[in-house]
Amino acid sequence: MHPRITRGTLRNKISAIGFVIISIVWGSALVFHPYFRIRHIEITGTSNIDRVALTETVETALSRARFRIIPQNNFFLLDRVRLETVLKTKFPIDTVVITKNFPNSIHLGIAERLAFVILDNGEQYTLVDEEGIPQKTLRPVAIHERIERASTTLHYPDVPALYARYGTYPVLYDKRNEKLDPALAQSVMRVYSYLGQHTDFATHHFVYPQNEYQTLLVVHRDGVTVAFNPVEKLDEQLETFRNAWQRELRKEKGKDVRINARYPGRVYIEE
107 and 151 in contact (C-beta within 8 Å)? Predict the structure, then answer.
């Protein structure tokens, strides 16, 4: 005997089938309807990365369908991890926060990773990477960047002009080298980033003096100079300096003084 199908059972089956069909239709509408296609991309936090190139990369990544059918540019199906990986692979980015704004916009908050140093050897400026390898010759040192005092020629790079033309990369004056030691290049980037993120110390440029052993000088825009050891326990030196700067050394801004921060746990003004 065949089981008897009651009206209630048939009604339940029809309802279930109807629910599945409606769900498929609604799901397809949410996935494929142009209204939910990401059309607006807002980017903040960039200073050196080409924003046009960054936007084009995002658009290209979103235009590729997964499994040849599932759109990546759909508001509901956006794969944040995949997009972040693409951007970090192609650009010097430290972090990127991707926020969706209903129904078809995304915002990218970018924190750039320093990838270059502007090396000043006293004759010309060169862009070098984090391995210390020259990437591009920028320009010769200008006449106004050489200051004659008594019988001495002082060198003071025009950092605002360099930033405006080539990007906000740390400027290092080291007339001994055309190629930087990788450890020195990375130390300059580390100090520049740390001071910018954790203090109000306004870095102008760096100096790697010829006659001082393992010393990296950071010149403030208002006259103060700070000495670090770029080779040993740099993070501890930076933390010690941050605490001392916030407590009392900030008042030295505008004075022609040198602060020695080369020893973790100890910071003092040199006589």
Answer: no
